[in-house]
Design brief:
Blueprint lengths: L1 E3 L7 H9 L5 H7 L7 E6 L14 E7 L3 E8 L2 E8 L4 E4 L3 E5 L2 E5 L3 H5 L1 H16 L6
Antiparallel strand pairs: 1-5, 2-3, 2-8, 3-4, 4-5, 6-7, 7-8
Length: 141
């Protein structure tokens, strides 16, 4: 689910909270070592997210916010902001020459730059959260 969050809309908060869970409290965020990534350069977006990309040669940036049952990807397009809410059960990572996140028939590719390397510990904690979430739904052998 992609929402235009350039301006505050009180209807968006309950929708996002129901979809990916509430945000962590300040104390929980400090205890976890942070729940947000630094901004990263977006290399490519899926065709159904093309309306978010800059039409000029500007660079698109995005950052990821960890929630209790999913993640929020905040994408900046010039002066507009978009938020893509992804629950953990739909979240898929791929790591090749770049890192990509896939969900809901959409994807985002992050450029392998210095900014991305600074987020290595964040991605590690994000993967641990996804693994913990998936383990509660494992089937017995």
């Amino acid at each position: 689910m992609v929402l235009d969050t350039t301006y505050y809309n009180k209807e968006h908060k309950p929708i996002i909270d129901q979809f990916v869970g509430e945000s962590y409290s300040l104390w929980d965020a400090i205890r976890r070592g942070g729940v947000g990534s630094k901004r990263m350069i977006v290399e490519k977006l899926s065709p159904n997210l093309d309306h978010i990309t800059n039409t000029t040669s500007d660079i698109n940036y995005a950052n990821i916010e960890l929630r209790k049952r999913g993640v929020l990807i905040h994408i900046t397009k010039g002066l507009k902001n978009y938020t893509w809410a992804i629950p953990f059960y739909q979240l898929v990572f791929y790591k090749t020459n770049f890192t990509s996140i896939h969900a809901q028939g959409k994807f985002i590719h992050f450029k392998n730059s210095k900014m991305f390397k600074e987020n290595k510990s964040f991605f590690k904690s994000l993967m641990n959260e996804k693994i913990e979430f998936d383990q509660q739904y494992t089937l017995p052998y």
